[in-house]
Design a protein that fits this description.
Layout lengths: L9 H10 L25 E5 L2 E4 L4 E4 L14 H13 L10 H12 L5 E5 L2 H16 L3 E5 L23 E3 L5 H11 L3 E6 L17 H12 L2 E6 L10 H6 L5 E4 L10 E5 L1 H4 L16 H16 L2 H23 L3 E6 L2 E6 L6 H16 L1 E2 L6 E2 L6 H21 L1
Parallel strand pairs: 3-13, 5-6, 5-7, 7-8, 8-9
Antiparallel strand pairs: 1-2, 2-3, 4-10, 9-10, 11-12, 12-14
């Protein structure tokens, strides 16, 4: 087995050292070196085009993180960017009052998303999930929240509790995806005072295998929400405009009361949405306050409208599903061939390769070796986050990636 040399990431390391004196920790969130493999992955990127990235040291990668999800088409998608440039140069995008494009986008969402009747536009996923909880509490006059999945960094849901008083999350309870019995128990205890059940309709927990819904699971959750008068919220920040044009709710045929959308909606431009049933959403018009200087900026509305136009016109999601299903079958064949404890989960547009846990902890070494081999070969994945397929991934890109996965698994087999 040929030895793949370590990447030269000297400029990345130099910039990171400088950043530690300017930014707490150098970089924040899920972009820290320790969220990849420290010393192997670049820390600073220079350019992106299509499905390829180049870092500050000149290393080029075929990318499968897609900006952690927003890049559904490709980096520097010319039609989208040109539409935004025209808006900025010919009309402007940040004003005291709102431009008409919010109406156009809201109308489009009602055509596509089953639960969408009224919409509120924000900037980030955390904005949207937090607004949805405020709406649900105002609508029901109840306090407690039952959650499943990652919903952002705000006080009520952040996993790292530093700086957050317990009273701000003591009424939030968690259940595991596909565990309807656990939710039934929580609702038996807290249901009469539960404002919302918020969940990812497709299971993509952090650092863990992905899950499709078991038969009857989503239906059972909806039935419990209706029984106790709780608002059912789908967090479709990752699944909206990726699993289907109507999100996972359209794909799986179970409609919530509210949905939050983001990421793939505008191909990288900052926008998120709370959308849902009129009677629930209307409390935002008279009973609570949601506002920001930048919420009505039209650059992201324009990007979203153009992205949706391309998604529909070019049958983008059909393309992603078709090539993704073939790709995942080939990955599974490579996993079966090498038998090193690797596991593939997910669906064609978003998937994850993990390793079976064992008492010795060898799976951690296998995971690190596997993703080290991939980054050294020029394929950008994360050992702690699922991967995405974009429209600009070609069959040749996927073939090259499959060969790298096969070689990486073979090297692990030889080592272990």
């Amino acid at each position: 087995m040929r030895e793949i040399p370590k990447l030269n990431i000297a400029k990345s390391r130099q910039l990171f050292e400088e950043a530690t004196g300017l930014i707490p920790g150098g970089v924040l969130g899920a972009r820290k070196p320790t969220d990849f493999i420290d010393g192997e992955y670049p820390i600073f990127l220079e350019t992106g085009k299509g499905c390829r990235l180049t870092d500050v040291d000149g290393n080029e990668f075929i990318d499968f993180l897609c900006g952690y999800g927003p890049i559904i088409l490709g980096y520097r998608e010319e039609e989208v960017d040109e539409a935004v440039y025209r808006q900025i140069s010919e009309k402007g995008f940040c004003f005291t009052l709102t431009q008409k494009y919010q109406n156009l986008l809201a109308k489009k969402l009602t055509e596509l998303v089953p639960c969408s009747e009224l919409s509120i536009f924000l900037k980030t996923g955390s904005d949207a999930t937090t607004a949805s909880i405020r709406i649900a509490r105002a609508y029901t006059n109840k306090l407690k929240v039952i959650r499943c999945g990652y919903h952002g960094w705000h006080d009520w849901c952040v996993e790292m509790k530093g700086g957050v008083p317990p009273k701000l999350y003591e009424d939030v309870f968690e259940f595991q995806y596909n565990n309807l019995g656990q939710l039934e128990d929580l609702m038996a205890t807290h249901g009469d005072d539960t404002a919302a059940i918020i969940m990812t309709p497709f299971g993509h927990p952090n650092h863990q295998k992905m899950q499709i819904p078991k038969p009857g699971f989503l239906e059972g959750v909806k039935k419990l929400a209706d029984k106790y008068g709780a608002v059912l919220i789908y967090d479709e920040i990752r699944t909206g405009f990726r699993l289907s044009m109507g999100g996972a709710q359209k794909l799986y045929g179970v409609t919530p009361d509210l949905t939050v959308l983001g990421k793939a909606l505008a191909n990288g431009y900052p926008i998120s949405v709370v959308t849902g049933k009129k009677d629930v959403m209307m409390v935002a018009g008279h009973k609570l306050f949601i506002s920001s200087t930048f919420f009505p900026n039209s650059d992201a509305f324009i990007a979203a409208l153009k992205t949706i136009e391309i998604l529909e016109r070019d049958n983008v999601l059909d393309n992603i599903w078709e090539k993704g299903e073939r790709f995942l079958k080939s990955i599974q064949a490579a996993i079966d061939k090498h038998d090193v404890g690797a596991e593939l989960t997910g669906v064609a547009p978003m998937f994850y390769v993990t390793f079976k846990k064992d008492e010795t902890g060898a799976y951690k070494g296998k995971r690190e070796d596997f993703y080290t081999q991939l980054i050294r070969r020029g394929f950008f994945f994360s050992p702690f986050h699922h991967a995405y397929i974009s429209f600009r991934h070609t069959e040749k890109d996927l073939e090259l990636t499959l060969n790298a996965i096969d070689e990486s698994l073979a090297s692990i087999k030889a080592k272990y």
